[in-house]
Amino acid sequence: MLKIETIQDQRLSNWVDGAWREPASKRWIPSFNPFTGQPWYSIADSDTQDVQFAIDAAARASALWREVHAIERGGMLRRLGQLIADNAEALAQLEVHDNGKLLREMRAQIGVLAEQFDYFAGAADKMEGSTIPINRRDVLAYTVREALGVVGIITPWNSPLYQLSWTLGPALAMGNTVVVKPSEHTSASALAIGELVAQAGIPAGVYNVVTGLGATTGDALTRDPRIAKIAFTGSTATGRKVAHNAADHFAQCNLELGGKSPNCVFDDAPFERAVNGVVAGIFAAGGQTCVAGSRIYVQKGILSRFVDALTARAAAIRLGDPRAEETQMGPVAVHDQLHKIGRMVKAARQQGAQVLHGGKQPGAELAQGWFYEPTLLTGLSQDAEIVQEEVFGPVGVVMPFEDEGELIALANDTRYGLTAGVWTQDLDRAMQFAKRVEAGTIWVNTYRAASFTTPMGGFKESGYGKHYGLESMREYSRVKSVMVDYSRTTPDAFVMRVRESI
Ligand code: NAD
Q1: What is the DSSP letter of 411?
Q2: For the chain, give me the number of helices (H) and strands (E)?
Q3: CB of 217 closer than 6 A to ligand 1?
Q4: What angle do CA 446, 388, 424 make, to 5 degrees?
Q5: Is 203 domain-assigned?
């Protein structure tokens, strides 16, 4: 399997039909390590021909893979999970070099990925259909769930393996084949999975990876009429383009898009837990998560005490080498993103934001990497750009609220609807929040809790469709109804009457 030592300064080709394939384009794109700010390997800059070649392979393999018995598919997926566990350290190191995630966070995450493949392996042979009573004698009506065909998977850079796996598990378990277009900033781990897929005994062509830019490689993938479904994780702006392309050939979409999630603290919240939850909500993974709790609403009775505690915690966060055990926040994964964060904070300042902590890049000793300080702003109105738009970095905005009614209106005042958190000891209030806030996941006295057994996915402009849980097995399958007439006699008068009526 690819390892950091073997890919350093190398060109990585596409993984198609069970082997490495040089791109027909003959073009390459450098990939950078955000901690050093230096390029460290190159990926193929695939063109339309390269994408079609991968889809050809996936379409050929589809006919075979859907016929493999679900129990056998499950067995192979279980082996893939085991291989991911066996190679956890190498995979973790790849991700850390590619996007600056903390090494200890990656080690934990990859352990969960192995369990996740095990879960979907177990689900492969449990997607039952139903038998349906109908108004015909000696006619059996039943449903089966079958594979969709070729699924296109497009992933972002913030958690590459994680976001690949939440589609790969259910898509392969249901008998689909896939063509993956990972982010041009973080393609190594998706390519590394190719070799593990082969070792797991999964046939060539079931898993294919074409790397390249979104506007060319990604666009070509979404336009190909042989793609039955596109599983897209990324920004809302790109999701809109993907959905338009998909509509042209009636492909289904699963869109996991941006967020601007509210994390809301009532006066009666369990104070320390709420502080921890709000800090982790916005600063975990340097705020580069779709579920970041970037709008922090605090009830007026505890506002100043809460803000003091939050600011002290933000100031204590240790930035540094993502491989070091003591580091609590690594660099921003993508250079343009660093500029975007700086620009949005500057605009917020011009709109009157008070900076409680951060608001700049750190000094000399981290100057070579793409770092931004954990930042807390306050004093902004609800319509400020940074309150309404996703930063995708370590920037939280603290805002006061008076009562439950006002809070729910503020929480819902956004075009996004991915997640929301509430901190209170009042059960009725928590339940009202869960009922009235428009978000795909609600967290009560916790934040960022996720399990591959529980469906996640956004509302509104955060997208549609679910990953995780049996719900995601349904996402990557379709229902077929079958009716079998096994009557031996001439239909009786009753049956004739019913037939005439339908
Ligand atoms: P992005 O939209 O720029 O890119 C995502 C992927 O789409 C990349 O692989 C990119 O190459 C590709 N792409 C870009 N233009 C394309 C086009 N025209 N056609 C097809 N593909 C194209 O997003 P990003 O900057 O990589 O990731 C950050 C975004 O992802 C944030 O908005 C974040 O909220 C979102 N995200 C959402 C979830 C979720 O579960 N809802 C999870 C993680 C990230």
Answers
A1: H
A2: 17, 23
A3: no
A4: 25
A5: yes
Q: Which pair of tokens denotes residue 294?
A: 């970037």
Number of domains in the chain: 2
Residue nearest to atom 19 of ligand 1 (CA): 219
| Ligand 1 site, residue 183, Cβ cutoff 6 A | yes
* Residues assigned a catalytic role: 256, 290
Residues 347-370 have pLDDT tens digits of 999 999 999 999 999 987 888 889
436 and 467 share one domain? no
How many angstroms does the Cα of residue 255 sit away from the middle of ligand 1? Answer: 10
pTM metric for this prediction: 0.95
Same domain, 474 and 377: no
36-48: per-residue pLDDT in tens? Answer: 999 999 999 999 9
Give the C-alpha separation, 393 to 391, whole Å: 5
| Whether residue 355 sits in one domain with residue 285 | yes
461 lines ligand 1 (CB under 6 A): no
Nearest-atom number in ligand 1 for the CA of 462 is: 41
- Closest Cα to residue 205, out of 69, 68, 72, 75? 68
Tell me, yes or no, whether 164 and 269 share the same domain: no
Does residue 454 lie within any of the structural domains?
A: no
The verdict on the CB of residue 227 being under 6 Å from ligand 1 is: no
My answer on whether 151 and 33 are in the same domain is yes
